[in-house]
Structures are given as C-alpha cells and as structure tokens.
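Handoff note, outgoing to incoming analyst
You'll be picking up this chain. Sequence as last confirmed:
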Amino acid sequence: MLLDRFVDHLTYEKRYSPHTVAAYRSDLEQFQSFLDTFGVGELKEATDKTVRRWMMQLMEQGTGARSVNRKLSSLRGFFKFARTVGEAEADPTALLDPPKTPKRLPEFVDEKGMGRLLEHREWPQGHKGATDKLIIDLLYQTGMRLAELLGLKVGDADLRSGTLRVMGKRQKERIVPIGPDLGDGLKAYLASRAANGQPAGTTDALLVDAHGEPLARRSVQRLVRYYLSGVTTQRKRSPHVLRHTFATHMLEHGADLNAVKELLGHANLAATQVYTHNTVEKLRKVHAQAHPRGGE
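Most recent structure output, in case you need it:
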C-alpha cells in the first residue's frame, strides 16, 4: 500500500520522529475517509478539486487554519513521494494556496518570573527535587526540545569541558555549552541518582524517576506546567515555552541571531527570526513609555 510505503519513507529515510509520522498518517487517513465518500479508492487518485473541497469542509467544521495547513502539508509530502516512486503523474496540491493564518508570537516567561522560579523556589527534598530543578534548568538554559531532553544519555554531559551533546531532529547532533550553574545542577542530580540506588550505568537515559525508569513525556509536561503556574498566568505553560523563553532572553541580552539558531538546532534562520518580534515589541513599549513623543 502506497500510504504504508510513504510512512516507512518518513520513518527510515527522513528519520522523522514517531509523533510526526503519526500526524502524517492521521492526516492522510482522514483524507482517505473523505475520498471514500466520493468513491475514490486511493489517495493518489485525488484531484485538486477534491483536495480543495476537503479543505473547505474542514474549515466549515471549525478546523483552524494552522491545522488545515498542516494537513495540506501532509498531502504535499505524500504526492511528492508518490511522483518520485512513479505512482502518480501529477500533484493535485501544487496550485492550491494554503489558508492564511494570523501571526502568533511565541509565548515566553519574563526574566522576573524565571528569577522567582529558579532563585526563590523551594524544591522538593531528595531525588525528586534534584530531578525537577534539573529539568527546568536544562530546558531554560539550553533551549532544547522536550524530545531532546528525554533523549539525553548519561554520557552526553561532559562536565569537564562544560558541554552537552544533544540529538536533534532527524538525528542531527549539536553541542551546546552549559554554564557553571547548570553544571552544578547536573553534578547534584547524578549524586542524588547514585544515592537513590540508580548510579550512572544502570540505564543509558540521563533522566530517570525514583524507580530508575526513564522519565515519561507526560510526566515532564505536567511537571513544567506545575512550576510555571507559580510564576505566570499565561495559557501556555509547556516545555516549549521554556525553549521560547531561552531564545527570547538570549536575544534581549544581545546574542547574535545565528548563534541562537545554532543553539536551538534550527535548520534555517527564518525559524529563529520569529523571536526577534518579541524583542522588537518590547523595545516598542519602552520607546512609547520613555520617549517624549513615543506615545503619540
């Protein structure tokens, strides 16, 4: 089946994450269900009219423009693959314009909020406290993604050189620096882990729970949401917010945009430039408040 071949292509050749592959499959299966109502047997037989009709139906049902764009992107990827392997002659998505989406600036926690969390927060005692604090520190001080955090191995931290090896998207490795504060946090965590009966070498995973098992994605998400709830009222309080916070604070303090791009593991500069909007908005507010004619 062509869909299965495409999924294998994403998994083994493109090396997309399981979460991304599942999203592609879900989008394409949803479109196939739509085609079934019109008697179209296979995805590759779709026309531009059926794709456009599907997009219109999705939006009429209340699906947001960003979600529709993602589904259209899934179709584009599928038909590009289908043409490459000789299973389709044309791409019905080629001339379709994606729905316009409103610009949404990344949400982040201000420096005062992060200061209250990291400097004044009373952390739980023992291994849990060391683990919780390290998770917040790693996300905020390196800007890594949640999947990258969970993929860290014990051997990825080099405390002598002050660096951390991070495996990013599509198995692209990068080295990020760690400051003395984060280095001390790693030392404290590893000591706590050993005292808890889980010395380095018990499992490859750096971050483990009280039972020595690698931390689950959901548990980290809940943990971050809990701690951020104490310093911000914004709706989003996820690990990715700490990634946004890292990038925004770096740029606010004068970091070079290309350097931030490398630290974040972005493939191109355009993905990093979104954070400049936050700093520009902050400067705009300062100008409006401080300049004699800024508020006019």
